[in-house]
Design goal:
Protein name: DUF2236 domain-containing protein
Strand order of the largest sheet: 1-2
EC number: 1.-.-.-
GO molecular function: oxidoreductase activity
Oligomer: single chain
Number of helices: 14
Strand content: under 5%
Keywords: Oxidoreductase
Length: 317
């Protein structure tokens, strides 16, 4: 059995282990909230309002386990998620219709909003990704969709397919009062008890939320209207993302791990052990799990990826 769900030489590792993923995760939640039915599911049946930071950390844990967790660990997490989703229903207040949390169209939207946000944010933060890399990433992530109950063919597996899907879903997206409240939560969330020590640093979070917000599609920002539209905001957000990524890259691993859930850190340590046992070696110049490469092959590095002017697909409008 392979030691990790995705191999270290995959595009998935290059993207998911990039430290700009903190902004990408927030952006994904903001983008997901634009689907009015999916938003009602979150609003009615999750603890988002009481623990928005916890929701972000759980998303980070899912990404971690389905990237460098063991196949057994990912299967167990996926089974737990599917079991929870099967038991949850909610009501669309506009139509009175009952919906299931594991409804296929909702799961597809959540998946697509996440992977698009991960691509857009890490690329703008400075991670070099060619169009071929992005196609490979979407194909790799189609396997991850299986953990929430979808098949690989339920979700787009390349950029062209993602563009078609987003063009199709765009007319159904809009800002509801609940979605606007979610964005405000994400810009200034309550800290969980485990991060109480970081309360004096809470003002540093706002730029993270603001960068996530500013990287949303233009129409989405105009519809939300939560932050003022200022000239040059998108360029400033891109510059800010690159500065944040550079700064986080300089944080020693032992301090950076304080931001993560204990289970996520434990999964990373287990992955390190399994990879070493499987014949991977640590590279002296790399960080954490990004340090692994097969002794007989060298996976493509960020620096080796060709430049590209292609744009990550977004819901048009």
């Amino acid at each position: 059995m392979q030691p990790t769900v995705a191999p270290p030489e995959s595009v998935t590792w290059r993207i998911h282990l990039d430290r700009s993923m903190w902004v990408a995760g927030v952006r994904a939640l903001m983008l997901q909230a634009l689907h009015p039915i999916a938003m009602q599911g979150v609003w009615q049946r999750s603890d988002f309002r009481s623990d928005p930071t916890g929701r972000l950390l759980r998303t980070a844990h899912f990404v971690a386990v389905t990237t460098y967790g063991s196949p057994d660990e990912a299967d167990a997490l996926g089974a737990r998620i599917r079991r929870v989703h099967r038991a949850l229903t909610f009501t669309d207040p506009g139509t009175g219709r009952r919906h299931r949390a594991d409804q296929r169209d909702l799961l597809v939207w959540v998946h697509c909003a996440e992977v698009c946000s991960y691509l857009e944010t890490t690329r703008r933060a400075g991670l070099r990704l060619s169009e071929e890399d992005m196609d490979r990433y979407l194909d790799e992530q189609s396997r991850t969709a299986g953990y929430v109950g979808l098949s690989r063919d339920d979700v787009p597996r390349d950029l062209a397919g993602m563009r078609r899907y987003l063009a199709m879903v765009r007319p159904t997206l809009r800002v509801t009062p609940e979605a606007r409240k979610v964005v405000r939560f994400l810009l200034w969330p309550d800290l969980p008890e485990r991060l109480a020590w970081a309360a004096p640093l809470k003002p540093l979070w706002f730029p993270v939320g603001a960068m996530a917000y500013t990287t949303l599609p233009d129409w989405a920002r105009r519809a939300y209207g939560v932050l003022p539209e200022t000239p040059g905001a998108r360029a400033a957000a891109t510059a800010g993302l690159r500065m944040l990524r550079s700064g986080l890259d300089r944080v020693p691993e032992r301090y950076y791990n304080l931001l993560l859930d204990e289970a996520t850190v434990r999964s990373a340590k287990d992955a390190e052990r399994r990879l070493l046992e499987a014949g991977y070696r640590k590279r002296d110049t790399a960080r954490a799990l990004r340090s692994f490469a097969r002794s007989r092959t060298r996976p493509p590095t960020v620096a080796a990826a060709p430049r590209t002017r292609s744009t990550v697909p977004e819901p048009a409008g």
